[in-house]
Amino acid sequence: RKMLKLPPWCVPWLAARIFAGSALGCAANAQTTPLPPPTVASAHAQEHVTLAQALEAAWRRSLDATQASGLQQQALANQSVADNWLAAAPSLLLAQREPSSARTGDARETEAGLALPLWRPGQRRISALAAQTDQVWAQAYADAAQWRLAAQVRELAGQLEIASAQLRQAEVQRELLAGLANDVAQRVSAGDLAPSDALAAQAELLAAQSRAAELQRERQTHQANWLLLTGLHAWAELDMPRTGARDLSEHPEMILADIAVERARQRVELVQAQRGAQPELGVSIRQERPGQGQPRQNSLAVSIKLPIGTQGYNQPQMAAAVAQHDLALTAQQRTQLQLLSELELATRALESSQAQADTEMSRAKLLGQRAQLLRKSFDAGETALPELLRAVAAAAQADAAATRQTTALALAQARVHQAQGILP
Question: Is a pLDDT exceeding 80 seen at residue 296?
Fold first, then answer.
């Protein structure tokens, strides 16, 4: 049989799940009243979707999706223009001339023709390449926008998971204190403990209930933000990506920056090839009626219109294209440095989160064992209630910190994947 090798960050997460299960078992054994049935909110929270499904739902609702679709349609329109054998739409020419002198009788000249804008040498080829690059750039823009949206999805999913884990731990603590308060009340009735002990136990129970209610409100706030972002009621758990780590050259932002540089370079070539207005080919038919009973005369005319002296008028467009190319180069370098910095910071944060999670898990385990020992000592009448309550509170705080840090470790791993440009 092949053994499944887990990544290092999964170990504390599994340990937290196992420890949480053991804590639930201890709480169930300690309390004398049964646990209440699960509420609608807790049952609803068990419905989950994958991060990929959540990202797809959020993308359908985003403004960037609409803009990316518009950019793609614009690129397709430019490609359609580049595929045409005319540089622009043709124009129709209609003309009629009549002599001003009455001695010519019914003499008249009629002309009908077409003006056909033509491509300059190499302009059509460059326009076609630019249109193809625009399509690639539009797709790269969509990929980069999805990557940026994935950061929001991951962050909000991590906040929801942290809030849910803390709420579960608070509910376990509440049930544990409820059982303890019940036991104290019974011992007060039997005369084993003072009434002040019952008041102290009830006060700790009310504090736990208040904490659980506060966490419930916090979780509802995250759920509302999640619903606004994705339109989904079910929330996603942080999971491993479908692909492994890759080089930053495959990062969506880096790909977009590289294509932007190529797109700007082709814009410079396109402006150089245009050099002002388009030349026009004119084709017309002329019919002359001399009058005085003379026969009509028909003729075919072909003309070419070549704009001259357009170099100076083309300078503003050329300067703007060169400036856009320089800006794209600067943005490319800045993007590379920024991505490297973000990846380094995310990697260091993951290492720190791993060490902190290990520490919090060990601390929670020790304080949990101490609380269990003091509970046994309290049941035997060897420990005072205030000392037990302090131990239980310390164990609860440690459990909350361990739960929060374990989920934060998964979020730190997700941030590394985000910095690497890996989509869910």
Answer: no
Residue with tokens 């630019």: 130
Sheet hosting strand 280-289, strand order edge to edge:
91-97, 108-117, 280-289, 297-305
Asked whether 388 and 375 are in contact (CB, 8 A), the reply is yes
Task: Give me 247's structure tokens.
Answer: 């080089």
Residues 223-234: tens digit of each pLDDT: 999 999 998 988
- Please give the structure tokens belonging to residue 230: 């994705």
Digit-coded pLDDT (tens) for 381-410: 788 878 888 888 888 888 888 888 888 888
The four Cα atoms 156, 159, 165, 170 give a dihedral, to 10 degrees, of -130
User: What's at 317, amino acid-wise?
Assistant: Q
